[in-house]
Every structure is written in C-alpha cells, then in structure tokens.
Amino acid sequence: MLDERMRPRRNRKNEVIRSWHRETWLAPQHFVYPVFVHDRAAVEPIKSMPGQSRMGLEALKKEVEGAMSEGVKSIVLFPAIDDKLKTSDGKESYNSAGLVPRFIRALKKEFPELVICTDVALDPYSSDGHDGIVRDGRILNDETVEVLCMQALAQADAGADVIAPSDMMDGRIGAIRDALDEHGYSEVSILSYTAKYASAFYGPFRDALDSAPKFGDKKTYQMDPANAREAKREAELDEAEGADILMVKPAGAYLDIIRDLREESSLPIAAYQVSGEYAMIKAACQNGWLDEDRVVLESLTAIRRAGADVIFTYFARQAARLLRG
Ligand code: PBG
After folding, report:
1. Which of 24, 61, 63, 219 is a plausible cystine mate for 305, CB 3.0–4.6 Å?
2. Is residue 214 within 8 Å of residue 128, measured between CB atoms?
3. Burial call 130-156: b when 16+ CB within 10 Å, e when fewer
C-alpha cells in the first residue's frame, strides 16, 4: 500500500534537482581512444566497426588533433601488421623501427602532452594469431614473457607513457616492471589487463587487425566468462607485481567484475568497452532501433557507475562531443 508521505519522485521532479544528487559523472578526461594504425597512407574503414578505420601516420595525426580539441587526450595504438612480417616468434613486436615505435615518436614530437598507451601482446605480430609463442599447439608462458619485456622496452624507448599488457601470461607484470626499471624507465606506467575474459565480443577487433587465432582459442590464457573469484586472484597478483592500474575487459557484460576490483583494490580501475560492444550499439542505431546519442552515454555511465575510473572506448570522440552539447 502507498505510504502517502514517501514519494521518491520528488527527488526526480526536474533537471536541476536531479542534478543535485547525480552520483556518476562522465567527462572526456575519462576516455582513452583506441586507434588502429597501419603502414599505408590509405584510410581503410573497418566494416564491422562503423566509424573506425585503419590509419596511416598523416590520418592518425589529424585524428589525434581532433580528439585533443574535444578533450580526449589519451590514445592506445593497435597496429595492423603486414602478413610478411608475422612470424611464429613474433619478433616484429620488439623491432625499434617497427610501426608502433615509429608512430609513437612521430606523435610525441607533434603532441607532447598526448598520453600514449601501448598494447603488449604478440597477436598482431604472430603468424599463429596468438598472444604468446606457440609450440606443439601450446602457448608458452615464460618464453613469451621474455619477448613481451622486449616489446615493452621498445615501446618505452619510443616514448610510450603507459604500457598495457593484454596477453594474460602469468608473471608478466613483475617481469615488465623489472625490465623497465633496469633500463631507466621507472616513470613509465603499467596498466594491466588484469581480468581479461575469453570473450566473443572481440570479434570485430580481430577483423580490424586480421589477428584471429589460426587454431584453437584463447581459453588457456584469457579468463572463463563464468568466473568472478579468479579476477580477484589476478588483481592481487598484478598489484603485488607492481601494476599501476587494473583493467577489466570487456566492460558492459562484466560490470560486476569492475565493482569487485573497485572494492578489492585501491588502485585506479580501467574498463574496456570492446569492439563487439561498439559494433552492437552501432548496428542497432544504424537500423533506427536505438537512440544512439542516449545509448552511447548510458553505456559509458553504467561502466563508470560500476566503479571504473577510466574507460577505453571507440566512442571516445563521439561521447566527448555529446558531453560538450
Ligand atoms: C590483443 C587484444 C585484443 C583486444 C585488445 N588487445 C584481442 C584479443 O585478445 O583477442 C580486443 C579489443 C576489442 O575487442 O576492442 N591481445
């Protein structure tokens, strides 16, 4: 029965009053913009990610300039590597003259205040399409970590601000921290993909980089979508090994994990709204089935509400423009 005195709707009666007690804020400063790069001048649209493209250096500079002017001052680089440079040992990943180090140097020259994050994992460079080195159908852990350290060093040497290992090998955070410190990069941050799930939501990303596994799947290193406790264990290890920021990925279907890590750790928490989340929203909106402006902001607000500080999102620029009004 209605208690005549209890009317929660009074606190929602107009926008001014609603804004008194709004708990969650979104601003361009919360976004990291993932960009796909390649070694060609052409801008190649990615079919399954409307609005996103593979870019060469000149197009990328324009994109970064636009993003910065909208208040998005952080990017993460994902390289589409030529097939002939892909090998089973992924050695192009630590070529200091490779695509990623070259682009970092060029961007840093032009945009000194841009924060550049880099992905550490072998999949874009691996002829097997796996994040680690493969032998007899197995993904080798410790041998992979050695290569990841060299990859991180090449990125740090080029000027990366934040190294983001997405490979899910055991022990890589500590090993990369030691390698960076030994080489004088103690100021370079590590943002760990701590709870990265073996998710079908990465499909469009693998199209974008042509990086899908050539055999099997990633379930021996990425986490089981059914599990939450395992995320806490990964968080404890990453924190002990010296991670600066912990990430949950994907975001939208894993809001409980974001909340768990927020409660478990005092480190900043990042979340990655991945390619499949982006593609679903875009596809529905292109069909006129959802209101794009509202859905974009709602999806990001929910990720922040769950406890994420920073969000990696392909909507970074679009959302920044919407927030500006
Ligand atoms: C590579 C990597 C992946 C993503 C980010 N880094 C793909 C994968 O693990 O298969 C996915 C990002 C996205 O779907 O937007 N290790």
Report:
1. 24
2. yes
3. bbbbbeeeebbbeebbebbbbbbbbbb
Report how far ligand 1's centroid is from the alpha carbon of 61 (Å). Answer: 23
Taking only the tens place, the pLDDT of each residue in 218-270 is 999 999 999 999 999 999 999 999 999 999 999 999 999 999 999 999 999 99
Whose C-alpha lies nearest to ligand 1, atom 7? 202
What are the tens digits of pLDDT across the range 40-74?
999 999 999 999 999 999 999 999 999 999 999 99
Q: Compute, in angstroms, the gap from residue 73 CA to the centroid of ligand 1.
A: 21
Contact in structure between 139 and 221 (CB atoms under 8 Å):
yes
Q: Tokens for 88? A: 């089973």
Regarding the beta carbon of 119 and ligand 1, being less than 6 Å apart is answered: yes
Beta carbons within 10 angstroms of residue 44's beta carbon: 15
pTM, full prediction:
0.97
Architecture category of domain 26-324 in CATH? Alpha-Beta Barrel (3.20)
- The domains of the chain are located at 26-324
Nearest CA to ligand 1 atom 11: 202
Catalytic residues: 196, 249
Does 166 contact ligand 1 (Cβ within 6 A)?
yes
Ligand 1: atom nearest CA of 205 is 14
Q: Rg for the chain (alpha carbons), in Å? A: 20
